[in-house]
Amino acid sequence: MRVLFHLLEWFNPTWTMAWLLDELHDDLALELDFLHEARNAERCRENLKHLDYVHVPKVHWNLTKKRILTYEFVSGIAIDHVDEMKKMNLSLKDIDEKLIRIFAEQIFRTGFVHADPHPGNVHVRINKNTKSKSAQPAQIVLLDHGLYESLLSEERKILCDLWMASITNDHVRMKQAATALGAPEKDYELFCTLVTMKPLPDTEQYEIPPYAKDWDPLPSELQMIALKSGKFHMPSEDEYKNELSEEQRLTIRKHFRKLMDKKRIALLRILKQMPKTMFLLLRNLNSVRNTLKIHNISDANRTALMTEGCQQALKDFQTKKKKI
């Protein structure tokens, strides 16, 4: 793997990711220790026992060793098998809300985060403990507990501050929280975007749609400012194909390419500087977002539910502070 990464760097010097193997070496080695995975599963099960819509298979300890792991058998459907879930009268919206709440609980409240929740590791079954008139209630089954990340209490507090600052567009707090979590100061906005998985509302950006009806009447100075800054509203695929002239499409491609090159360099800078804990956290967030995309569920719902989890965690911190 290391040789492959270095070969890729040789072909493209700007693509420098071999360092990532060093960062994750210990975690990847632990994934081969099934006693470690079994302990992770038990801890996850204990942390989430108050949520009846999630199930972590029990470990059969008498049949488990460092190279052998035996769980209870649980029948379920991979979370990306949409047609099968619909045949069972399971609601995708219900499934996704529960999935989001589970990982919001881990990220903001317990700090013990499943770092590899891709569809193969997340299954769904009917929750027989709950009744619903509209659809069969779903229960999420979490599998493969080999790769976890532990967030310290202080890290979770800063992460909560970053999330709420991003939602409220408070750039002072965003910068403070982002740098505290290891992001370069000049890249704090991009870092916040990576964590929240949503574009930030930015009053300083030019919101100039490059559509003929709006773009052409603008003074050339404003057009140049918008283009040079790279800060203009990008059209949807349909708008791009049907509403723009060929000249406008060429202009967008040219300037968008420059903007993406800058973002890519900034992204590598962030990944190199931030601690490993944040890298695995981003892996979790991105996996969940990809599942929502497969289900064609609004991302706005994810943001709202994650914010609920964040606010609950902040209440927890306040309660602990009062007790002290």
TrEMBL record:
Pinpoint the ABC1 atypical kinase-like domain residues.
1-177
Residue ranges of the TM segments: none
Superkingdom to which the source organism belongs: Eukaryota
SUPFAM superfamilies in the cross-refs: Protein kinase-like (PK-like)
Write one Pfam family the protein is assigned to: ABC1
**Signal peptide from the UniProt entry:** 1-16
Q: Which UniProt keywords apply?
A: Signal
Tell whether Signal is among the UniProt keywords.
Answer: yes
Homology family:
Belongs to the protein kinase superfamily. ADCK protein kinase family.
PANTHER family documented for this protein: AARF DOMAIN CONTAINING KINASE 5, ABC1 FAMILY PROTEIN
Instruction: Write down what this protein is called.
Output: ABC1 atypical kinase-like domain-containing protein
